[in-house]
Amino acid sequence: MALSGLHKAYGDVHAVDGVDLVIAPGEVVALLGPNGAGKSTTVDVLLGLTAPDRGEASVFGLTPREAVVSGTVGAMLQNGSLLDDATVAEAVGLVAALHRAPLPVAEALARADVADLANRRCTKLSGGQKQRVRFALALVCDPDLLVLDEPTVAMDVETRRQFWRGMREYTDSGRTVLFATHYLEEAQEFADRVVLMRSGRVVADGSVAEVRATVSGRTLRAVVPGAPVADLEALPGVRAVEVRGDGVELACADSDAALRALLARWPAAHDVEITAVGLEDAFLALTAPEEAR
Amino acid sequence: MNARFLALEVRRAVRNARYLLFTIVMPSVMFLLFVNLYGAKDQVFPNGLPVTTSLMINMAVFGLMSAPLAAGARIAVERSTGWQRQLRLTPLSSSGYVLTKGALGMVLALPGILLVLVLGAVVEDVRMSALQWVEVAGGLWLATLPFVLIGIVIGLLATADGMQAITGVLSMAFGLLGGIWIPAEVAPGWLAAVMHVMPTYWVKLVGQAPLVGGADLGTAVLVLGGWVLALGFVAAKRFQTDAARA
User: Fold this and answer.
1) Residue A166 pLDDT more than 90?
2) If you average pLDDT over every residue of chain A, what do you get?
3) Name one GO molecular function term (chain B) (predicted).
4) Burial class (CB in 10 A: 0-12, 13-18, 19+), B151
5) CATH class of A217-276
């Protein structure tokens, strides 16, 4: 699927401000960003629910609407509601009946792990159960591309884990998934690729490691008894220092240089630990508003 | 239009206790109540229609109006809860959605009409020929179309919160101003003029036509047709803007 030069404004608010994005078949892509970054609008355009002001979207070479009609795209909407006076099986059955080549309803229910809820009224579901039913609704057209907008909102930890397990089965068959989330661990654990959005633009795009690397630097932690802060700050490659008791935490542009200098100066330093910047730090750094950086 | 979609919609509506109560039971109860309150079972109106028959038709009109209004107005709920967005992710077209809702309104109007007529025949001894029964029922049912469209227009324009009040006020207004609760013949001139624009007035006339000589069916078709065209236009317009937003 491809988005090119996408713009969409609501009044004065540029929800999406020039997004270019190409996703190859088989990729599992996480769309990350703070609230209001334009994730949902991007997803809506991709599904043909919103027409862009400028730019184009195509899915398997079709327009979004054509792709939806052909059943190659399934989606789980953020606030997509269920039919209150129908049972789970009826709601999923209806969506199946509207599609041309659906999965058997029982299979969609089983894959979404809601087979036991088939005869339950949609009003009598917990938040997590509703999300799983929405997942069944997204699966029932047997799509090649699955688009999920904040799929695990309202799920507890265990349900979330189960949900992703079900999702893995689905992607193991080589299908494409794009999911918007603000749970970083989900992106980190599950996505092959992370696309970070801020203020309607893509600010980083790549594997988790690549996105992390765009925010350069590492963190060096060690126990260094009696080292004055000023001396630590003067070490080569160090950007910032934090001291907690004997423990120091050095934010380094060049951790190798900093480590050599540190050990030369304070041979007693121990418990040395160097970590790459986490996705969370990268996320914060990249999605912070311009003026705060 | 999709048969399974329509079938589920009907099933959902029937499950709804409010639908059953207001659109099927209420008109019938009112009919039995009025007949016995009037206590004038054997009297005949100046147009040649027995009081009981006239009340039966009035209450059938009351019944046929409520179901489509309620059914269409539920579109507002589906718009607000996001179920419509969910349906947009299926091959169902926007017009297919509206057509199904229209068909649903027509289907739901039928039981209310039939129950009142059956009670009329069985309990209240209303007598007419088989052909007349079919004409009365069929005429009333066909004349339901403007109300189906009114329901759809409300559903497309109103918010989920507002639609309850709007349908309530509208069915009151259509009932009162359409001569269902008070006959147009006793209304003052200005009110009578208003009544002659109401779809209810003409639907009632369609229902009476098989039994009364010289009913002005041509005007009925004209006025009801006008309502259908105007409402259809509003619905289509509203629908285009909806689709453009999509």
Assistant:
1) no
2) 84
3) ABC-type transporter activity
4) buried
5) alpha beta
The domains of chain A are located at 2-213, 217-276
Of A70, A71, A83, the CB nearest to B12: A83
Half-sphere exposure of B31 (CA within 13 A, CB side): 32
Q: Are A242 and A248 in contact (CB under 8 A)?
A: yes
ipTM for the predicted complex comes to 0.77
Q: For residue B133, is pLDDT > 90?
A: yes
- Is B86 close to A50, i.e. CB distance below 8 A? no
CA torsion, points B201, B203, B209, B212, in degrees to nearest 10?
A: -30
Q: For chain A, what percent of residues have pLDDT higher than 70? A: 93
CB pairs under 8 A between A and B: 71
B245 part of contact set with chain A, CB < 8 Å:
yes
Question: For residue B165, what pLDDT is reported?
Answer: 84
Q: Which domain holds residue B223?
A: 3-245
Are the Cβ atoms of B90 and A86 closer than 8 angstroms? Answer: no
Domain A2-213 homologous superfamily, CATH: P-loop containing nucleotide triphosphate hydrolases (3.40.50.300)
Query: Count of domains in chain B?
Result: 1
Contact A95 B86 (CB under 8 A): yes
Task: Show the DSSP H helices in chain A as ranges.
Answer: 39-46, 64-70, 88-98, 105-111, 127-139, 157-172, 184-190, 208-214, 229-233, 255-265, 279-287
Which residue in the set B81, B90, B246 is minimally distant from A95, CB to CB? B90
Average pLDDT over residues A41-57: 87
Q: Which of B2, B86, B91 sits opposite A77 (nearest CB)?
A: B86
pLDDT digits (tens, 9 = 90+) for A265-293: 888 888 998 887 666 677 777 766 554 44
Give the pLDDT confidence of B43-63 residue by residue, as tens digits: 888 777 888 898 899 999 988
In which residue are the tokens 């409520």 written? B66
Q: Please give the average per-residue pLDDT across B207-215, as a whole number.
A: 84
pLDDT at residue B239 above 50? yes
* Contact residues, chain B, for A70 at CB < 8 Å: 91
Reading the block at residue B190, the tokens are: 């200005």
- With an 8 Å Cβ cutoff, the interface of chain A facing chain B consists of 47-51, 68-71, 73-75, 77, 79-86, 90, 93-95, 97-100, 137, 141
Residues in chain A with CB shorter than 8 Å from the CB of B89 are: 47, 49, 68, 73-75, 77
HSE, CB side, 13 Å, CA atoms: give it for residue A262: 31
Q: Give the Cα separation of A187 and B58 in Å (integer).
A: 64
